[in-house]
Amino acid sequence: MQKVIKDKGISLTIVLSVILAFAGCVGGQLGQNNSNEYRKGMVVSASEDASLVGIDILKKGGNAIDAAVAVQFALAVVYPNAGNIGGGGFLVYRSAEGEVNTLDFREKAGFRASRDMYLDPDGNPVIDKSLFGHLAVGVPGSVAGMVAAHQKYGKLKWGDLLEPAIVLAKSGFKITARQARELNGLKERFITYNPNGTALVKDREWLEGDILVQSELANTLELIRDKGMAGFYSGPVADSLLAEMKRGKGILSADDLKSYKAIWRKPIIGDYKGFKVITMPPPSSGGIALIQLLKCVEPYPLKQWGLNSDSTVQLMVEAERRVYADRATHLGDPDFYDVPQEQLLSNAYIEERMAGFNWAHATPSANIKAGTFKVAEHEETTHFSIVDKAGNAVSVTTTLNGSYGSAVIVKGAGFLLNNEMDDFSVKPGSPNMYGLVGGEANAIMPAKRMLSSMTPTIIEKNGELFMVVGTPGGSTIITSVFQTVINVIEFDKNMQAAVDAKKFHHQWLPDTIYMEKGALDSLTVVKLKSKGYPVLERGAIGRVDAILKTRWGYYQGGADRRGDDKSIGW
User: Fold this and answer.
1) pTM greater than 0.85 (yes/no)
2) By mean pLDDT, which of 91-95, 126-130, 516-520 is the weakest?
3) Pick from 381, 279, 288: which is nearest to 340 by CA?
4) For the chain, which domains are there?
């Protein structure tokens, strides 16, 4: 019941309405400085240049998918260590009306790939072969993914969405201090794998503020603008890629390029305390793993225990070691392997997995194996989150795998190639570059998509959009998304605070809790070690870019300060 009180003829409800309206105006103004809250839309990405491109598309009447396409191509220019047209990724979409969909544009092994292609005569992995150079490259999927997304949901003209990236490549952009350090540090590697030269190498050291011009990449983007898929997977760009493969003794062929297709897949949907979690299915391992983790901790009073308390950390670590063990055995490309998705996500299975958990001491990972069923059913990626004026939302994680991928830049076309072949189980039971152990489900096969940890996710509350979230970070992607979601739902953090919060990570093997400096206080570390948990400090974990819709209907951004990430709204 609304109670109206009048004083001197003025209705209190009118006064309150005026105050709230003023507060909304002030909030919008403050959003540019402090509160970071906006009404009409938001883009959060790894680059200020790319975020500006996305918000400009929204202001011109484009929807979230239009902005995603423009941001993806802009990142290929201004964020070359992970933004790409020579890699692949995943997209999770939710319309303003509640329609949900997911797009798989993950890279694939070439038709000439073979199970033991990275093993020496004694059967041992030759690490560099799957990490650097032409043999490490999977068939790129990013261009096909953007074309598919635009064809299904886009609103603006395709060519208009590529124009900002073309301008950035032609005219150049100012590199950040972080990018200058990266390019200088990788100079010798770029020279080794690109003896004919590349725009990423200068005669002198790169400096913050230097202009990076990429003319060859601009020409490639123009062909994609004019011809769509054909501008990349056939014609001059494909010819340049195939010539690059021949020069470096790679295995990708014209048939690999012409046969590639992005695939729309049914989302993984789960529930956590009334929140609907919409996330990516295999060949991403992230969606299943995220839902498993949330189910594992749901029965426990995390809010009461507090953020990064010893009990909270212990519970989350025990959940993580079990989920990553399942990942190693049961997850792979569903077109090649019958993933037991229903069983992995069943409440009975989760309860059984956590039944062996003992508060008194750590469960050694050596004692944790993947669950069994009677019936089978480099930390450099980039993520961006977008919401448009109508409320359509998109969560996109895309990658070259390792930072700057295989280090091979296609001569004449100007784009970096991925090193995604390392995401296969090069030898089942042996770890990849992120220390992740895989099994037969993720063994190399021709035309197969390699398993990924990417976890683009959208969350609803009471049938309305609540959060758009994702992160780069290799094996830490899943746990970074998990902790960010928990930070908001359980610990009442706003979006930026949830992203900023220090993180920890466990992935079954190696049996170690990795933590960012300051993530756990000294007493918590002592308590965990006393129970048998090895704890090791490491560098930054994840670079989450996320959007939260507040109860007042504003979009609140969280751009990770671990990088040069930027949240821009309007």
Assistant:
1) yes
2) 126-130
3) 288
4) 44-264+380-442 (no CATH), 265-377+454-569 (3.60.20.40)
Q: Which residues contact 444 (CB under 8 A, 6 or more apart)?
A: 109, 113, 114, 115, 116, 117, 118, 421, 424, 425, 426
349-361: per-residue pLDDT in tens? Answer: 999 999 988 999 9
Output the DSSP codes for 315-377: HHHHHHHHHHHHHHHH-S-TTTS---HHHHT-HHHHHHHHTT--TTS---GGG------SS--
For 292, 354, 365, 508, the CA distances from 324, given in Å and listed in that order, are 10, 13, 10, 6
Count of beta carbons in the 10 Å neighbourhood of residue 208: 12
3-state class (DSSP) for residue 119: strand
DSSP 449: B
CB 215 within 8 A of CB 199: yes
Report how far residue 58's alpha carbon sits from residue 64's, in angstroms, rounded to the nearest whole number. 7
User: What separation, in Å, do the N-terminal and C-terminal C-alpha atoms of the chain show?
Assistant: 35
**Residues shown for the chain:** 570
Q: pLDDT value at position 35?
A: 52
One DSSP character per residue, 252-297 reads --HHHHHH---EEEPPEEEEETTEEEEEPPTTBSHHHHHHHHHHHH
pLDDT at 428: 67
480 burial level (CB within 10 Å; 0-12, 13-18, 19+):
buried
Residue 476: C-alpha distances to residues 252, 400, 506, 514, 535 (Å): 30, 16, 8, 10, 16
Question: How many other β-carbons are positioned within 10 Å of the β-carbon of residue 529?
Answer: 13
DSSP 391-445: --EEEEEEEEESTTTTS-B-TTT--BPP-GGGGSBSSTTSB-TTS-B--GGGB--
Q: Could you give the dihedral angle defined by the CA atoms of residues 235, 239, 240 and 243, in that order, rounded to the nearest 10 degrees?
A: 180
| CA atoms of 562 and 460, how far apart (whole Å) | 27
Element counts in the chain: helices (H) and strands (E): 19, 21
Per-residue CA distances from 294 to 283, 542, 558 (Å): 20, 18, 21
Least Cα distance to 38 among 534, 387, 520 occurs for 387
pLDDT in tens, 261-315: 999 999 999 999 999 999 999 999 999 999 999 999 999 999 999 999 999 999 9
**Given 102, 176, 329, 381, which residue is catalytic?**
381
What's the pLDDT tens digit per position in 374-406? 333 345 689 999 999 999 999 999 999 999 999
Known catalytic membership, residue 484:
no
Inter-residue contact 489 to 505 (CB < 8 Å): no
CB atoms within 10 A of CB 59: 13
DSSP one-letter string for 454-502:
---EEEEETTEEEEEE----GGGHHHHHHHHHHHHHTT---HHHHHHS-
Tokens of 233: 């997977």
